Amino acid sequence: MAEAASILVAFLPHILVLLFTGAIAGTLAGLLGVDGGALRVPMTVITAPLGARLAHRLSRVWLRRAFALFLAITAARMVPRLPG
Predict the structure, then answer these.
(1) DSSP single-letter state for residue 59
(2) Angle between helices 2-17 and 34-57 (to 10 degrees)
(3) Which of 31, 69, 75, 77 has its CA 20 to 30 A from that of 13?
(4) What residue numbers bound the domain in which 6 lies?
(5) What is the rounded end-to-end Cα distance, in angstroms, of the chain?
(6) Cβ contacts of residue 23 below 8 Å, gap of 6+?
(7) How far apart are CA 76 and CA 26, in angstroms?
(8) pLDDT tens per residue across span 35-83
(9) Is residue 64 part of a domain?
(10) Are the beta carbons of 24 and 46 closer than 8 angstroms?
(11) Sign of CA dihedral 36, 21, 14, 9
(12) d(CA 45, CA 51)
């Protein structure tokens, strides 16, 4: 838990800048929901160390396969949204 707190403290200035500049501009343009951002930022800070640990435990081959699968799923979800 202390590790997560130290990461939060380290990234707090960046998080605040993004929240106050990007979130305000995005909200004014109707592009960003503040409630969604308020949930994403803490979850990202909490889960980033877990993802880093997992990435270091996996072999390079399995990490590449997992990333390729992620990209394939993302692309498959984007295809129906193409115009035309």
Answers:
(1) -
(2) 130
(3) 31
(4) 2-58
(5) 49
(6) 32, 34, 37
(7) 27
(8) 777 788 888 888 888 888 888 888 999 989 998 999 999 999 888 888 8
(9) no
(10) no
(11) negative
(12) 11
